[in-house]
Predict the 3D structure of the following.
Amino acid sequence: MSNKSLTSGQMVLVALVLGYLGLILILPLGAIAVRALDAGPGLLLEALTDPAAQEGLVLTLLLAGIALVANGLVGIGAALVLTRQRFYGQHLLDTLVDLPLAVSPVMTGLAFLLVFGQGGWLGSWLDSIGIKIGFAFPGLVLATLFVTFPFTVREVAYVLIELGTDEEEAAVTLGASSWQTFWLVTLPNIRYGLGYGLVLTLARALGEFGAVLVMGGAISGQTQTATTFIYNALEERQESAAYGMALLLAVISVLFLLALEWLKHQHKKGRLA
Amino acid sequence: MSIRVSHLNKRFGDFIAVNDVSLEVASGELVAFLGPSGSGKSTILRIIAGLEQADSGSVFFANQPADHLHARARGVGFVFQHYALFRHMTVANNIAFGLRVRGLGRSAQNRRVGELLDLMGLHGLGQRYPNQLSGGQRQRVALARALAPEPQVLLLDEPFGAVDARVREELRHWLRRLHDDVHITSIFVTHDQEEAFSVADKVIVINQGRVEQAASPAEILDHPATEFVARFIGEANVYDGIVQAGQIAVGKLHVPACGLPDGTSASAVLRFYDLKFWREEAGIARVIRTMTLGDRVKVEAVIDDGPVIYSQFPRRSSLLAGIEPGCRIQIEITLARLYPHGDLPLQ
Amino acid sequence: MSGRWLGRVNTMFRFGVALDPGAGGRLVRVAVLTYIGGLVLLPLAALTQHGLAGGLAALWESIQAPGARHALWLTLWTAGLMTLINALMGTATAWVLVRYRFSGRAMLSTLVDLPFAIPTLVTGVMLVILYGPRGLMGTWFHDLGIKIAFAPPGILLALLFVTLPFVVRAVEPVLLEQDPAEEEAARTLGAGSFTIFRSVLLPPLLPAILSGSVRSFARALAEFGSIVVVSGNIPYKTLTAPVFIFGEIEAGAPQSAAAVSLVLLLLAIVLTYAGRMLERLAGVRHV
């Protein structure tokens, strides 16, 4: 399988794939790098010193942190429910978990507005008790939670299925309670899968744009996140501000990418047992 | 502690895994559940351990009903087919697990782990991880882990299925010796007759979710209770026929059917070692080939106007003199077992 | 194939009573269902209700409005074309990454996941930097009279970028599991390369290729961040359905937005369900 020297036909295929990935993936990535080098470190610095950019970044980090904790916890629970319990409607739940991956972020924002916004299902009631969700921080939280929900569930469920139930049953015959079994056996076994899901959650939360744009309105200083800052800057033709923030996010996502690779490697290593 | 199982039933969807099974294991006994794969033997074991719930029927430990007890409260040591070792824990932590979850102190844990490592011949491997061990070592760790909390009952699901032939042989001796030392009531599941007969005090043959026979190894070999047992245990020729004039005709070979009335449809089971072949031109069969299997020789012949028949002889047997492919032979049946279809055997 | 499928279902749903979750587990289930109900089901139900509020006739009218119809059509054909390319090149990429050893392979394999990590808006920005009218290559293409950014080719490139990992990551595990002995057996039986590919290699890969393709297609129908930057959003020319919805919300026409959303939601549900079934058939599961 691991041919040291490739035949000419294989070489053509490799060249084709390399060319394709180069065109689709590496060229655009290279473009932003070239642009950054052109402008010098000032571009990144600008993104980090501009107060509006800073506010956007802090807001985005806060949202990502909330998504990490909430969807991490619920994600573990949901994955356990999906793979270790049997109940009516399981397949429905399975599909529902995946659905946010296929729903356009714009629709997510709209859907939440139709529940919580003015004229929405709960809009006037929330208004009467003085709670504002649309175009405010809680709305951004909801939108972020929605779009990042599937990642932890899917990754953890995948690992749980792969793991099987042998070790958990062994723990039970040795006298462990459900909680001990989870804490001492299941959790250590899913840790890299969980980590993978959490990094994906973070990446998605940091990069979410459409849903927070619609739900939050990208009001500077209030609901403007890192991505909506870029969008507003582009609209206002402040290209260097937009490119600076875009570059910063690209750098962060390369770090995420390395983290994902490391976690995948660790998981594979552990599985060789 | 004795185990009794009464009228156990279990279905998985349309598949009947366990069909009205009752059996008993005396305190301190080492028993084998023997049967082909899919016969339900593992399911019965898992029901005894509380890992699976029976649809109906009961399990008793020391004559006390155990059905209401959760698996964690049954005090059963269970050894899984593929070890099921905790892969992220060291060998020592694996073995200590059952003590740890019971809240035993560190030093008591370490003492017991040390004892078991010695008992299992795993000295010096306590800090290794499961993936750094050989198959045989892993299986012994699994056994040590199950024994650590001093269970009253030890259940082993195909314990030697995943190791190679030589290690399997070693582990069998090992299990027998261990049992002779510890005297814990033990049941192990296997599809390997040699394993069952060489290790167990009592063998329970299981097929299609039913108990076919429960007896000592010798009893099962000498007096198979059902056609299935006769066919499954040892190597045998099986011929179906209808009794006529007190015998079943298999080509020119006549199998005596003493006691069965004419017209009965039955299976004749002829063990390889219950047949004698010798060279005789006027015989009723022709040898096709001979196969040397270590200390024994297997002879394949075709009965005139009939099917193939096998027999087996010690390598140095005088009966083998002159037997070679193509020669004519005579056949003598020293013991034939007949099982009328749809009825219990008459012996 | 069906054997594999059953095997997967068994490992997923066959386990003994000892792991029965008990009261604590049921509590977790209720909590999880409530969370999903509130977070996912409730807003989507509101969207559906608003989409249908004016009755089916009104819904039909909203979808049939020229702007909406054009946006939906543009989204469907670009997503469809992208899916075809992705199915082909994704499979080839997985094949090369799994079967061949060459320098740079590990880095390439890592890079394939980049679209999962990078914000889609940034993807759009990158494409504009590259292909925009004043972009690094845009000026060059402009001289040739080819328009990429602010035109359908830009949309296509953005979709290809954001959906790149789906087919690759779906096909990879199946290829890794494939026994090279099957191929060798076919070769010893005298089969030619094409026959081997068609009758030995392809059939087990097909469910994985399809599941990856369905997921890319669904993802493409939903894509917003990269397209809103790269497409130029010119009505009747480069305005895709999600961007159209955004425009309607901005313009204060939630009714029309909800109507087009409903069409996309319906497609999303069907595609998600189909993707899940195909994953089960392929015996793999991945984002």
Chain B touches chain C through ten residues (CB under 8 Å). Residues 3-229 of chain B form a domain with the Rossmann fold fold (CATH 3.40.50.300). Residues 22 and 161 of chain B are 26 Å apart (CA to CA). The longest helix of chain B spans residues 165-182.
